[in-house]
Every structure is written in C-alpha cells, then in structure tokens.
Request: fold
Amino acid sequence: MKSNNFWEVKTLDQLNRDEWESLCDGCARCCLLKLQEDETDLVYYTNLHCEYLDLDKCHCQEYQDRSTLVPDCVTLTAKNLENLSWMPSTCAYRLLYEKKPLPSWHPLISGSQETVHDAGISIRSFSVCESNVEENNREMHIIEDFS
Ligand code: SF4
Ligand code: SF4
Reply:
C-alpha cells in the first residue's frame, strides 16, 4: 500500500517549510559542542551544550538569530546534508538523507514530543551548559561512543 507520510513520498528538497521543520525530533544532539582532532579531523561529541539552548525544552532560545550569534551553528538544508557527516546518527534529516526510516520514538511516528526523551535520545538527561566549564577543560567532557 502506498504511504501517506510526506517523509516517505517526498524527497528532502520537495518538502515545504512546515514539513521540513516537523522532521526535527527535538533531541538537541546537534547543539552539543564538538571537538575536532587536528591530525585526523575526527569529530568528538562532548556532553556540553550551547549556551543558547533551553535544556529542559531542548529548544534553541535564539532560533531566528542563531547563525549570527553562533557562526558554527549550521542551518540545515537539503543541499548541505551531504557535507554534514558529523550530524548525529539519529538525526531525522541524516536518516532520510541516508534513505533510512524514522525510528519509532520519532514524534512523527509516535505522535508525542515526549518519546524522544523517554527513549533516551535527547540530551536533556545528561548535558551541561558550556558556560559552566572552562575552555581548557572541555576535552574532559568528550563522550565516548557517541555519534
Ligand atoms: S540532531 Fe537533527 S533531529 Fe535532533 S535536534 Fe538536531 S536537527 Fe533536530
Ligand atoms: S544557537 Fe541554538 S540551534 Fe544553534 S547550537 Fe546553539 S542552541 Fe543549538
């Protein structure tokens, strides 16, 4: 039977703005600070989150101005996903770009914004604000086996 789910019948560049925004599961994993190793270019996630994140809601408090306030904060588009291999492996945009299905905890599947937290995918339960940690100590906050 043919699917009625827009994310299964449209390509990423065919989505309208509301559809595009609704793909975000609200995990805030992309708001974690990342460190890149000079020699290897490998990217490591830390448990530190951007100072503009409302951790309880896992929402950006400066969404409209985020690119100005945080130049490293990438605005996702259907076109730049191919260059963003460091995006979290659970990210809906990455999953669809890689032609993988959305997981059962995704709000579009479950019908609830809470399932991303209940499933332990969001960063709400373990993240700390970057402004609480000195820059020299950030390496101590690298999370092993996180992608
Ligand atoms: S990692 Fe992807 S799904 Fe999660 S908050 Fe960021 S953009 Fe949204
Ligand atoms: S500016 Fe907003 S969207 Fe960008 S990393 Fe910070 S909290 Fe996340």
